[in-house]
């Protein structure tokens, strides 16, 4: 089975104080399939790791990406199309943020292990 990672799961993997750290770590260690990571999350993960856990954590994450720990999933213009059945989610009343949230089902649906 393949796992699609999000920012919270990656951050929780690096933050030993995170309430879900052990559960996330256990799932990642048991999962033989690829760990998909949408490329659009790289900057956010880097920022959170740097500002909350320090530069060493951010560098460790980026080195793991470079070494192939994650299969990066590119975002395409097709991912920005909103499926009519998904509807509109308003995230902090920002049009750009809600577009990103609306695009997530397309991005995840386009991944083939």
State the fourth-level CATH superfamily of the largest domain: 5'-nuclease
CATH class (first level) name of the largest domain: Alpha Beta
Q: Give the helices and strands as they follow along the chain.
A: EHHEHHEH
Radius of gyration: 15 Å
Approximately what portion of the residues adopt beta-strand conformation? 5-15%
Distance between the termini: 8 Å
Question: How does this model look, in words?
Answer:
With 113 residues, this protein is mostly helical. The protein has 2 domains: 1-74, 5'-nuclease (Rossmann fold, 3-Layer(aba) Sandwich), CATH 3.40.50.1010; 75-113, no CATH class. 50% of the residues lie in helices and 8% in strands. It has 5 helices and 3 strands; from the N terminus they run E-H-H-E-H-H-E-H.
Write the layout of secondary structure elements.
Layout: E1 3-4, H1 7-14, H2 21-30, E2 35-38, H3 42-53, H4 55-66, E3 71-73, H5 95-109
Parallel strand pairs: 1-2, 2-3
Helix pairs in contact: 1-2, 1-3, 3-4
Quick overview of this protein structure:
With 113 residues, this protein is mostly helical. It is built from five helices and three strands.
Which keywords apply here?
113 residues; mainly alpha; 3-stranded parallel beta sheet; 8% strand; disordered C terminus
């Amino acid at each position: 089975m393949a796992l699609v990672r999000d920012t919270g799961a990656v951050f929780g993997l690096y933050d030993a104080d995170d309430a879900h750290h052990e559960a996330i770590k256990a799932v990642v260690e048991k999962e033989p399939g690829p760990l998909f990571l949408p490329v659009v999350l790289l900057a956010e993960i880097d920022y959170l790791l740097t500002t909350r856990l320090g530069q060493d954590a951010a560098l460790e994450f980026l080195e793991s990406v470079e070494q192939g720990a994650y299969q990066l999933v590119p975002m395409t213009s097709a991912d920005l199309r909103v499926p009519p059945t998904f509807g509109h989610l308003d995230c902090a009343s920002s049009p750009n943020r809600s577009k990103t949230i609306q695009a997530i089902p397309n991005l995840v649906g386009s991944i083939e292990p």
